[in-house]
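[stage:ingest] chain + small molecule (aspartic acid)
[stage:ingest] validated
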Amino acid sequence: MKHLITPNDLSNNEILELFEDAKLFSDLTSNSILNGKLVVTLFFESSTRTRSSFEIAAKRLGAEVVNLEVYTSSTNKGETVEDTVANLNAMKPDAIIIRHKDCGLPESLKSYVNCPIINAGDGKNAHPTQALLDLFTINEHFNGEIAGKNIAIVGDIANSRVATSNLELLPRFGLNPILVAPKRFKVISPYKTVTNIKKVLNELDIIMSLRVQHERHEVTATAEKQAQQKAKYVKKYCITKKLLGDKEMLLLHPGPVNRNIDISDEMLLDPRSKVLKQVENGVAVRMAILKKFILENKVC
Ligand code: ASP
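[stage:predict] done
[stage:export] tokens:
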């Protein structure tokens, strides 16, 4: 059984094939490819885009979708996640899409199911479908000429699963990541790392801005210190029109965007910002992923 836990579960060829399918699905119209199939979404962490994107993708392919209300599910009655998943599996779904705050949880559930598990985000560990839709958007923007392009990943790299999965995926297709973060959000990495984006701006083709992942921080600072930290962060890391000037750039963000902290209002309206294009592409890419993982896996 093939599962999608990290981008490394797919070869480069498989990814290129997925992208061919995603292009065919890019008008997001309905078809009957997954008629009679059943997809379960199981989100233990909040989500707007990813969950609705998977649900719309599955429905556009003709599948039925059951969204499990995790906060009213049996895990609140003391059941383990493993037992919840084993019970869902007994109802014979064709795929289970899961998001959880614990790193490694989707991987550990593989032995409890007879259908593909698709990781919709586990803690700061991985978010493979986000990285795939990011790569798809980059590839589309540059008409496939992406090898050698420099991409700055800006912000809370240490706590971002989007950063982790993109750092796993993008170099496989010849992209050069440059990490831009304050000391507290840096990671040990083989890639060039700077604290000041201005130092590398001229080298960049793409900027991927990230949200500060407050939900994964241990709060020790006083409210006053936090306000100071935030003001400093905005000054240095918010992507503004003043910073970019007229420079050509592809500006990405996985959402949700914290306006005027991650990216300014003005920059979000700028044609260089492709944040909504990422959302649109996300549905097409997830359609391709669901098709591949459901039809190529032996049905439970
Ligand atoms: N939506 C992305 C995630 O689930 C990014 C974020 O939340 O900042 O990781």
